[in-house]
Design the sequence.
């Protein structure tokens, strides 16, 4: 504009007045043009930001400010990389929590938070805290009194060596004899004790709740008849006396723990696949304790580790049924 005026001959009179008016008009119009340019540049800038919302640079900026802006969250959730950054940023924003209605980013954040919570609670050493549980889940198999191993034998002391010292590959005790013993009919009958066999046994699930007492955890039942009037029934007796109990759990070995069982009849307890308590045979209530520190080498356990505990019990004869667990193990984890 200036260049074209300097090239024109000087104006005089009315021409000068017109020139002044034209100059004033142009000077007033110039800011509007300038403002238009800024608006245009702003639109271009906004368009660039929108087009870059899928890039790493734009995502980084969005994650820094997205926690305070709904519009940024809306922009970034449409892109793969942006959604990841938005997930990290929006965890601090109430407005962005509204995006938890099924968006993958929110689901991922929720999953991560849940996983973190679970990880922290697994370190809780108290039975019943985190994954630790004060309830042990047991499988009960009911048999008829006519089974050759039930109600056919009696005894007044333990009969050791009925099972092998190593747990079987199916996580069941392995019968240690080729035929019958003074307490059992043989391998075929024993194979039915802890396996479901149609027409021979019926299966139930129960929970045994451990109660804390003076630093120990105890389940104590001097009338352990969990399936009275169920399965094959009481068979004209006041209780159902013919069943087996199978229990599997993991536990945390911290060092210094003891485990004691008191009961009748057969009881075998394995730790890390090794026979730790052997109270086989029919007998009145008997007690046996395993000192985990003293047996650590044989059991293959080290303080700080988590190991399997497998318990197998049988109630095979009238007219008592006792079942007591007492242990200083602080954390049982259901399998």
Sequence:
């Amino acid at each position: 504009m200036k260049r074209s005026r300097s090239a024109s001959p000087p104006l005089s009179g009315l021409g000068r007045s017109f020139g002044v008016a034209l100059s004033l008009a142009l000077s007033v119009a110039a800011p509007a043009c300038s403002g238009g340019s800024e608006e245009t540049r702003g639109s271009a800038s906004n368009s660039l930001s929108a087009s870059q919302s899928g890039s790493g640079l734009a995502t980084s900026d969005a994650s820094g400010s997205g926690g305070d802006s709904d519009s940024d969250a809306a922009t970034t959730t449409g892109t793969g990389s942006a959604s990841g950054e938005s997930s990290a940023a929006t965890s601090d924003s109430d407005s962005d929590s509204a995006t938890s209605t099924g968006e993958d980013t929110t689901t991922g954040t929720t999953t991560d938070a849940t996983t973190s919570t679970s990880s922290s609670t697994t370190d809780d050493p108290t039975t019943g805290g985190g994954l630790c549980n004060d309830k042990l889940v047991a499988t009960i198999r009911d048999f008829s009194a006519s089974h050759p191993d039930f109600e056919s034998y009696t005894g007044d002391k333990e009969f050791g060596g009925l099972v092998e010292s190593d747990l079987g590959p199916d996580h069941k005790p392995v019968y240690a004899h080729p035929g019958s013993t003074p307490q059992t009919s043989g391998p075929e009958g024993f194979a039915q004790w802890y396996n479901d066999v149609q027409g021979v046994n019926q299966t139930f699930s129960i929970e045994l709740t451990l109660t804390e007492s003076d630093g120990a955890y105890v389940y104590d039942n001097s009338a352990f008849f969990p399936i009275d009037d169920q399965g094959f029934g009481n068979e004209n007796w006041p209780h159902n006396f013919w069943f087996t109990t199978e229990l599997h759990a993991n536990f945390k070995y911290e060092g210094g723990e003891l485990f004691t069982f008191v009961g009748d009849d057969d009881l075998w307890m394995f730790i890390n696949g090794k026979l730790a308590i052997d109270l086989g045979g029919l007998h009145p209530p008997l007690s046996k304790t395993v000192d985990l520190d003293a047996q650590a080498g044989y059991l293959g356990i080290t303080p700080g580790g988590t190991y399997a505990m497998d318990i197998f019990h049988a109630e095979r004869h009238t007219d008592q049924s006792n079942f007591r667990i007492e242990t200083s193990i602080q954390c049982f984890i259901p399998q």
